[in-house]
Design a protein that fits this description.
10 helices; 7-stranded mixed β-sheet; 5-stranded mixed β-sheet; alpha/beta; single chain; globular; 312 residues; Metallo-beta-lactamase, Chain A
Length: 312
């Protein structure tokens, strides 16, 4: 555990993904205890995973806040709640997406979605198997003690709703410090993909969230992965420019023959990827293609996409 600034501590756990770690944050509360923001993956032995960090705090965890519903952020929420007795607060929109993703799983529909978007059936079978294994590590809370909205306060921290990476992603902001989850990262760009049962234009949502971060201009953003973001407004502009370039590359990959999101992903992400990373690449390509449709630069053609004809 590190004290990264006064009354803010960070604990880091290893995770078995492409990004091999996740940061969780302890914020000193006005009552002298701690607010935990994000909880890593669920564990078969929560006591072994959390006890050292909890004992090092020297005061109780009074509240648990979840920034978003991805497994490495919500996965341990029920575990830590059981260990500490602390209530769990989560964004309202995020909890709804969490319920759809982890509480109403439909493997057949999930598989059909990826097949429809061009993914080979053997790859889809691997994705479904990985999802079945992953759900065992997502110990989410079915009935949070409070559902948060934009502008709510959490012990003096303001809730900012910043969708894109997840439909209901929230961040906390106080005195120029943002506890940012995965809205903004150093060195890599947060994945922005279109998934079943999600909002229809996640990239559009995310670009608006980046503009909001630029407007807020926090002094520092403490993110869910990698180093703190020292100049969040500048980083937000960099990430927006990255997506503008990827939109241009996506439209360039299209021609007169309808292409699936999977086929476009092979042009945008040329490296040999694992099953999980190819799923992310396909979902991200799909998000960019849908944004191009809304911008009038591409059109849907069945379950595929073509470049929009220029206006004469």
């Amino acid at each position: 555990m590190l004290e990264i600034e006064k009354d803010v501590r960070r604990v880091t756990f290893a995770i078995p993904f492409g990004i091999d770690h996740v940061h969780c944050y302890f914020l000193r509360s006005s009552g002298g205890g701690w607010i935990l923001v994000d909880t890593g993956l669920g564990s078969r032995d929560p006591e072994a995973r959390w006890r050292e960090a909890l004992d090092a705090l020297g005061a109780p965890v009074e509240l648990i806040v979840v920034t978003h519903m991805h497994p490495d952020h919500v996965g341990g929420a029920a575990d830590v709640a059981a260990l500490t007795g602390a209530p769990v607060w989560q964004g309202r929109a995020d909890h709804e997406q969490c319920r759809r993703a982890w509480g109403e799983r439909n493997p057949e529909r999930f598989a059909e979605y990826w097949v429809r978007h061009g993914m080979p059936e053997e790859t889809v079978a691997g994705i479904v198997a990985e999802s079945d294994r992953l759900v065992e590590a997502v110990h989410w809370v079915e009935r949070p003690d409070r559902l948060l909205e934009q502008g709510d306060e959490v012990d003096g921290w303001r809730v900012e709703l910043l969708p894109g990476h997840a439909d209901g992603h929230i961040a906390l902001l106080r005195d120029g410090v943002m506890i940012a989850g995965d809205t903004i990262l150093t060195g890599i760009t947060p994945a922005v993909g279109l998934y079943p049962n999600s909002r229809p234009d996640p990239l559009g949502d995310y670009l608006r969230s980046l503009a909001r971060i630029e407007e807020l201009a926090p002094r520092v953003a403490y993110a869910g992965h990698r180093d703190p973001v020292a100049e969040p407004a500048a980083r937000a502009r960099e990430i927006a420019a990255h997506h503008a370039d990827r939109l241009d590359r996506a439209v360039s990959a299209l021609d007169g023959t309808p292409l699936s999101a999977y086929e476009v992903s092979l042009a945008l992400f040329r490296d040999e990827l694992s099953t999980t990373l190819r799923r992310f690449a396909t979902a991200e390509s799909l998000a960019h293609l849908e944004r191009l449709v809304r911008e009038g630069r591409a059109s849907r053609a069945g379950s595929g996409y073509v470049r929009a004809a220029p206006i004469p």
